[in-house]
Amino acid sequence: MYNLRKEPIRGICMEMCPKSEIMLREKERLLHILEMVPGTQKCPVADKEKMVKSFSRSAAGKQILDPRDLRPPQVLLKTVNYLLDNILKNNNVPWHITYHFIMDRLRAIRQDLVIQSTSVTVTESICILQPIVRFYAYSAYRLCEEPISNFDPHINQTHLQECLKRLLCLYDEWDYLSEFKVKKQSCIPLRELERVRPTFEALYLILNLGNSTPLLRVLNFSKDKRRGIIELAILVSLNYSKNNYVKLGRLIDKLPVLLQAVAVIHLPEIRRRAFQTMSVAYNSKNSTFPLELLQNLLLYEDVECVNKDCIYYGVQCTERNAVFVKSDFNYSKTVVSSYSLYFCRNYYFFIFLYLSIVLDLG
């Protein structure tokens, strides 16, 4: 896309941000608050150790292929680690501002990576993309209840899908090279790659529940590859397609935290389908269904959230029970936007989710 030359390009910028960009953005007052020297907001001064190259589209007269402005793979990986180890946990600005800063800088990293694609090894690309995918997955959960002005889930989903699909292609390329015993320069041991890969294969499944393409991909794996977390993700996918919401809730509870966070994205649709099914299966004005049981089955945060969704979809409720009547369900209602986050009631979930990004816990 960007590489218009035949010969490979290799960046020579050994800093997170080229000096020319630092000077330009400081002069034009285009510094982000997370890159400034503290206390210089009125007259911004760049903190050169915190400056990170920003994303910019190619334009007429702009030389994006200049090796002096391109960072080699080891610097790109260093920059990713800086963003996720230092910037991600800062408390100086609201988190959605931190998110937009990191997202923009990660786009610049991906751009540099694409431009140098012919001179970057498969494993170097894998090392860079894995934490980026984790960041987008984490953000999808952490910001899912933010207003659209602060966070656009569709844009985040687009970046997540693009990075994840590219990562899976790199895994396939790795397999091809291994099959033909092509000598590989690796920045990660083979054992480490095999340890973390199942998480991303399963993530592709969980992210695209109801889509047959990810399911067909993993079903073509050998039995040994389908064990553990991938096998669990397959069960989640199959039960989602069957609308078995009872088993689905139990399976989601067994997923590692990163996959749980992504599965939460599907909860509103799962709940709507469950209410619709139950309105037919339990159709009776004389029978009731405990709200507390609904809370546990559909992974709600509390009974009050269950009651709100029941009212939204037209399901009658008493103080502690729901009354399902087929004719009462409001089919015109779209999926409720609020996720009523079940996992938020456990403070340690967020801690483990954060650690899954910075420490590669899956």
What does the main sheet amount to? 3 strands, antiparallel
- Write the element-wise H/E pattern from the N-terminal end onward: HHHHHHHHHHHEHHEEH
Strand content: under 5%
Name the average pLDDT.
87
Give me the secondary-structure category. mainly alpha
What is the total tally of β strands?
3
Strand order in space, largest sheet: 1-3-2
Regions with pLDDT < 50 over 5+ consecutive residues? 1-5
**How many alpha or pi helices?**
14
Entry keywords:
single chain; 362 residues; mainly alpha; three-stranded antiparallel sheet; 14 helices; 3 strands; disordered N terminus
Describe this structure in words.
The chain has 362 residues and is mostly helical. 54% of the residues lie in helices and 2% in strands. It contains 14 helices and three strands. The protein has helices spanning 19-27, 73-87, 95-115, 122-142, 153-179, 190-207, 212-219, 229-241, 245-254, 257-263, 267-281, 291-297, 303-313, 347-358; strands at residues 289-290, 316-317, 321-323. A three-stranded antiparallel sheet has the order 1-3-2. Strand 2 (316-317) and strand 3 form a beta hairpin. Helix 2 runs parallel beside helix 4 and helix 12 packs across helix 13 (303-313). 33% of the residues are buried. The model is unreliable at 1-5 (pLDDT under 50).
